[in-house]
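Support reply, case 0932

Customer input (verbatim):
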Amino acid sequence: MEKILDIAEAIAHEKGLSPEKVLESLKTAFVQTAKRVIDRNFAFEAQIDDAAKSIKIVQTITVVADDDARLEDEELAPAFIPISEAREYDDQVELDDQLQVDHDLEEYGRTGASQLHREIEYHIQRLVEDEMYNRYTSKVGTLVSGRVTRVDSNNATYIEVDEVRAVLPMKSRIKGEFFDVGDHIKAVVRRVTMDKENGIQIELSRTSPKFLEELLALEVPEISDGTVIIEKAARIPGERAKIAILSTHPQVDAVGATVGVKGVRINAVSDELIGENIDCIEYTSIPELFVSRTMSPAIISHVEIVKNDEGENVKAIITLPADQKSKAIGKSGINIRLASMLTGMQIELLESDTTTTEDGEIVEQKDSVDALEALFN
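Our regenerated output:
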């Protein structure tokens, strides 16, 4: 097998792999071939011959006593040789010495060559997939883009991302979205799996809160450089989202920077999300204040935080004017659901005997009896 080291270098260059890892895969392919065409019970080792730029196969045999029980085991016996027999070749050998016998796969003709070719293909493909798996596993939660190559009968969208094909399942697509072959779309890597039958599988998502965060980082320089941090994000895809943001610089307004002049930045992200409305909230570590902000646009009177036995915040009891309840709940409960997702707490609403003015001030309601008297006076 001449010049196999040159072949290893060419494969590494062509597929963007480490030459050392390619060489290890080739050595494994040689060992597996030897086991298949010579004897699967032999202990083989692939050794590099740098001078000849080749790989040679060596069978390792351990010298044992003549009465060693392992010599009677059909599976173990090929790896051992009784000392009396070993001394016929070398009278200096001792127990536990290891003898090495060279084998030449070329002696096994076309069978050996075809088997070696299959083994090399298999192990190089596994190496490529392993490298790709590691590369894309590190990209979970990050933004990728690609071209749509197929949409199947289940509306799963297949996308060519770099050199691999990823899938965007229907469940991970924003409601109302439709894609055609040739469309270029963005998504985040949701999951990367590997199995022997299908190889590497990359699943994408456009409904994950992480997708919103990545799009914002793309549009808002202050987020991408860390001046503004997205602490939390919650979405009901295609409808509405809330993000809690925090500025790390005293002269940077987190909400203003994220929204942009005349809303240009936030609108660009909203357009990518099929018109999804995005509420920007300034994050605070004070739970009562944070809960109050997440309930926007409703005006809140009071917030009480309930903790569990471990001291974790599990419930927020919110007192608010009667005329603010519908705003707090939102259409189809969307506002309170997002607030609960963002805070990680169950939210309970209590109406108070107050109302709000046009200026947003909370005032006490007049007694209902006084109101009736006024009607008749």
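We compared this against your earlier run and they match. Two observations from our side: The chain has a mean pLDDT of 87. The longest helix spans residues 109-137. Please reopen the case if you see a mismatch on your end.
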